[in-house]
Amino acid sequence: MLPDISLAIRLQNLDDRVMELMKEISALPKHIAEIERRLESHQRQLDHDRAGLSANQKDRKKFEGDIQTSEQKISKLKAQMMDAKTNEQYRAFQHEIEFAQQEIRKCEDRILELMTGSEPLEKAVKAAEAALAAEKKEVEAEKAKAREKTAVDQKEIDGLIAERKTILSEMTPRIASEYERIRKGRAGVAIVEVIAGRCSKCNMLVRPQILQELKRQDTVMVCESCKRMLYLNPPQRFDEPALTTV
Fold this sequence. Notes:
By secondary structure, the protein is mainly alpha-helical. It is built from four helices and three strands.
């Protein structure tokens, strides 16, 4: 095989690996961002549950305070009732006391409802806190793994780039320049194999004359359709009829 073609194939394999590693590196931040978004979502849910529990406790304290105020009011009314001079005054005090007692019962009923409602909220908060703590550890582990993987990939890329420079320096300058031009204009693929008489990239048939040139392996040929360099590996004979089985 023409040395430049052999070098171009090595270069293409190397470039393919670099592209693969770069995609892997670029995908890692997206992966981390996704798990962090899930973490933020769970944090917001926990904050919501905590706010609900806090509001519940605040309301309970308010009603407990209202009960205390009503009890103090009743105590004062009972003391004042002892000084009532008429039945009307006595009944008025009694009516106010009954009203205050009704308010106390309403507050107690409301406190009981809030206590019943607080139980699932407390359980939800405790469960969410435990789950979030575990998830934070997982996220940190994923971040560490991603940083480690990125470092490993980048080290391999650096080695491949150094090898790439060496290969380019060994190629005929014109062929090396042509390889680079095609690669940049053809989505990173500059040289492809001919398989079963077709360009393996664009799938177009390769003319017999070009196939014969490829078979001789003494010149660089390109696909007439996609303009990429071509190679046969291993060499094939296209002037012989295909074998058939009965």
